[in-house]
Specification:
Helices cover 35% and strands 14% of the residues. It is α+β, with helices and mostly antiparallel strands and 557 residues long. Helix 5 runs parallel beside helix 7 and helix 8 packs across helix 16.
């Protein structure tokens, strides 16, 4: 036993030193290949951050890194996809001693389409290091600049635009009421103001022999009879939306379920033009004129002052009375309301309502210059272009003046400012140009619908804005019409003329047509060509008298 005890300590010490000498309990850390980063990228030789517009359809995309790239890792780490998520095949080469990857699509890309090229962190260097941060670029290809339709004369093109757009009101008019549907997807919902624009379009179509006079009278009489016998009027005014089959009011919003004085004004503007145009001794035309006068004389304009205030109110509801509380005050699209209200044979307003309510005693004046163009009245930059269009489908702005403005200067300045804003393109949206311009109310892919203007610009162009400005900016508008038809025709031209809007920044084209956008195109083209609707409206004896009462001067009075 004594011998065994003496040998134990040397054995233990030997084991300890043997283990320490091997070093297995603290192995050295493994070698980790260094990560690497993107140094530069270029598309077709140009660096522009991570977003590229107007690329050709065979772009050369170069990603340059801080080290040599492992070729075998590229196919799994570089993804090229279109905006629908479909994979795009590409070819790869290398430059700068394999530190630059050159990507070229195998086949030509589609025009005016968005693509995304992504390099993930699965990309490896030749020493097996990983890309530190993924890289993604967005690429939008250029428009196809070839003509989509044969080139015709400008006069023939304007004929075509009027004819095709007219089909919205004629072929697509509601089968029961004849009124204009709100939009091409609205079913039984018809619009009062859009119907007024549609009636003016029918007059232009008759004058151009798109339809015959008898058919036009029959259709307009159908509309007038429906308004008289099927629809509810509220102190002579009609609702914004109506059921085209039954005549029932369709609320535009919860409390907007009764009279809409502005929409009614657009309707009356169209009806008065029809009264003046269909002026023969024929019994059907006499009946039409009589029925139009009954509707016109039935509007209690002065009642919409809400207890004799010095302003007109936009809405009245049988349930909510004046709760909408929206005064019709300028400057906006509603000058026609005051022109008609002052001209009424049965319920005229005094001049004080115009001066205090509409003109706000001069507070609607502007006088500032935008892009070197002075704007007499209205908001900064003029607002949406329908301000210069809806009321002036009938009111002739040539030589029209009052205390506050020269209205030809106002409207033409507004249109030119809108054009120059788009050309200058301060927000750098894709696709704005001397041919692609026009901001006004329309559908869009950002908010659904918006009154686009320089101070409410989200990249959406509305063709009606430029087209209906033809009298004010003939060169600029004609350039736009050619562009919309020849260059963009495969995207914009359809059954009822030009579709409502487009956005070339994130590539969207509306499939919609709206009555209040289609109508001004036909009417203002006609006013540019012949002045027909201006002549008709300004020939109304009531209008001459009423506008003179408000202090207007015009060579047409």
């Amino acid at each position: 036993m004594t011998h065994i005890k003496k040998c134990t300590l040397p054995i233990i010490l030997f084991a300890f030193f043997a283990c320490s000498k091997g070093g297995d309990s603290n192995p050295p850390p493994p070698d980790i290949p260094p990560s690497f980063a993107l140094n530069t990228l270029k598309v077709n030789g140009v660096y522009n951050g991570f977003t590229y517009y107007n690329s050709n359809t065979k772009p050369v995309i170069k990603f340059s890194f801080s080290t040599k790239i492992d070729h075998a890792s590229v196919s799994n780490s570089v993804l090229f996809k279109d905006n629908a998520g479909a994979t795009v095949a590409y070819n790869t080469t290398y430059e700068n001693s394999d530190s630059t990857i050159v990507i070229i699509p195998a086949d030509s890309l589609d025009f005016i389409t968005q693509y995304v090229v992504t390099v993930s962190t699965a990309l490896k260097s030749q020493v097996k290091g990983a890309l530190r941060t993924a890289v993604s670029i967005q690429l939008t290809t250029q428009l196809d600049s070839t003509n989509k339709f044969p080139v015709i004369s400008d006069s023939a093109l304007l004929d075509l635009v009027q004819l095709q757009t007219f089909a919205y009101f004629w072929n697509f008019g509601h089968p029961v009421s004849g009124m204009a549907r709100e939009r091409n997807s609205s079913g039984d919902i018809v619009t009062t103001g859009g119907t007024g624009f549609g009636i003016m379009a029918m007059i232009a179509a008759t004058n151009r022999n798109f339809i015959n006079r008898t058919d036009a009278v029959t259709r307009i009489q159908k509309i007038v009879s429906f308004l008289q016998h099927n629809c509810t009027s509220y102190h002579g005014a009609f609702a914004h939306w109506i059921n085209g089959s039954t005549g029932a009011t369709i609320p535009f919003s919860e409390k907007d379920d009764g009279a809409d004085l502005v929409e009614t004004s657009y309707l009356m503007q169209g009806l008065l033009c029809a009264r003046q145009y269909f002026n023969s001794a024929d019994a059907t035309e006499q009946q039409l004129r009589n029925d139009i006068n009954a509707l016109w004389n039935g509007v209690e304009w002065n009642w919409f002052r809400k207890n004799n205030e010095q302003v007109l109110y936009w809405h009245w509801s049988p349930k909510y009375n004046w709760d909408m509380n929206m005064a019709v005050s300028g400057w906006n699209e509603a000058l026609i309301v005051y022109a008609l209200a002052a001209s009424s044979p049965t319920s005229a307003i005094p001049k004080t309502v115009y001066d205090n309510g509409w003109a706000k005693n001069g507070a609607m004046k502007n006088g500032n210059a935008y892009f070197g163009v002075t704007l007499p009245v209205g908001p900064a930059f003029g607002g949406p272009l329908f301000f210069a269009q809806y009321s002036f489908l009938g009111i002739n702005p040539h030589g029209l003046k009052d205390t506050y403005a020269d209205y030809w200067v106002q409207d033409s300045s507004h249109a030119r400012i809108n054009y120059l804003y788009c050309v200058n393109n301060p927000k750098s949206f894709n696709g704005y140009s001397t041919s692609s311009w026009g901001l006004t109310a329309s559908d869009d892919n950002i908010t659904g619908y918006s009154a686009h203007a320089p101070d409410n610009d989200n990249g959406v162009i509305s063709p009606t804005a430029a087209i209906a400005s033809l009298p004010y900016t003939p060169v600029e508008s004609m350039n736009a019409i050619r562009f919309f038809y020849y260059t963009m025709g495969d995207k914009l031209w359809g059954e009822f003329g030009f579709k409502d809007a487009y956005n070339l920044t994130n590539i969207w084209f509306a499939n919609s047509y709206l009555a209040i956008d289609q109508g001004p195109e036909i009417v203002m083209i006609e006013n540019y060509r012949t002045g027909l609707l201006w002549q008709l409206f300004m020939s109304c004896p009531e209008i001459k008298s009423g506008m003179l009462t408000l202090g207007f001067q015009s060579p047409y009075f």
